[in-house]
Q: What sequence folds into this?
């Protein structure tokens, strides 16, 4: 991660751009930009926000954002591999164990033997005493033909024993938990690009509706999937993908819906703009 931050910082310093100027362009606070240059992504709420900040930073200093995002993904893969290795039991743990175990028997301690002998005599004396008590008829409890019952009252019946279970509970006794609702969140916005992320969704579907003539280019996961002029009344659907970049020539002439939720930040825009939609 530090290599990415060093690459960004060197590119910025070579072009004579200050952190404050980058902050003005990207609308990202300088402390977050400094964290990027140090290779520390922990201040960001998630991977989507970190990717968005990296891309905006790269564009602000004239670097290829796709190349920076690619380096970020590769670094994340290496971090995950290292973490997986740390979770596995170390091979050295087995080597640290002694290879040979001494079979020599230690002598039985005399103190323990003395305690065992004392306990034996106590147990034998108790048994002898109980036997003598039963053998002496004068000490036996007299029998008077009376029935000795149980004076304890019966426990009250459990009123909930035959109650019908709660229909809202599952077989394991836990109530049903509804999954969180899908959300379309505007992560960042500037004059040239609006970054959205789709939360709590397994799949992503993007639908276009056109109210005026509009030129559209769609790049999904680095692949150009659509580029044409759409006329009023036309529609277009796009399948699932991790990252979808949409270039609109006339944003006000298009309406975009992600899983039924509208991208409303482009309603009154007349200048071309990028709309980026990612899935967390």
A:
């Amino acid at each position: 991660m530090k290599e990415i931050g060093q690459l960004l910082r060197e590119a910025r310093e070579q072009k004579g751009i200050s952190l404050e100027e980058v902050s003005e362009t990207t609308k990202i606070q300088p402390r977050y930009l400094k964290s990027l240059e140090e290779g520390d992504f922990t201040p960001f709420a998630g991977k989507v926000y970190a990717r968005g900040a990296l891309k905006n930073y790269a564009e602000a200093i004239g670097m290829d954002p796709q190349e920076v995002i690619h380096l970020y993904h590769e670094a994340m893969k290496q971090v995950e591999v290292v973490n997986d290795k740390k979770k596995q039991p170390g091979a050295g743990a087995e080597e640290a164990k002694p290879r040979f175990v001494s079979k020599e028997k230690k002598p039985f301690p005399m103190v323990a033997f003395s305690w065992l002998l004392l306990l034996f005599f106590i147990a034998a004396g108790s048994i002898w005493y109980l036997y003598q008590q039963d053998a002496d008829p004068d000490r036996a409890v007299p029998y008077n033909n009376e029935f000795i019952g149980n004076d304890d009252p019966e426990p009250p019946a459990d009123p909930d024993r035959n109650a019908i279970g709660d229909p809202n509970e599952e077989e394991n006794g836990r109530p049903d938990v509804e999954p969180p609702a899908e959300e379309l969140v505007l992560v960042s916005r500037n004059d040239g690009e609006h970054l959205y992320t789709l939360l709590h969704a397994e799949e992503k579907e993007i639908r276009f509706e056109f109210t005026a003539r509009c030129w559209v280019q769609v790049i999904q996961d680095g692949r150009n999937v659509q580029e044409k002029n759409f006329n009023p009344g036309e529609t277009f659907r796009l399948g699932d993908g991790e990252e979808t970049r949409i270039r609109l020539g006339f944003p006000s002439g298009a309406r975009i819906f992600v899983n039924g939720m509208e991208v409303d930040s482009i309603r009154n825009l007349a200048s071309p703009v990028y709309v980026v939609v990612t899935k967390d």
Observations:
- The two ends are 20 Å apart (CA to CA).
- Residues 91-98, 140-148 have pLDDT under 50 and may be disordered.
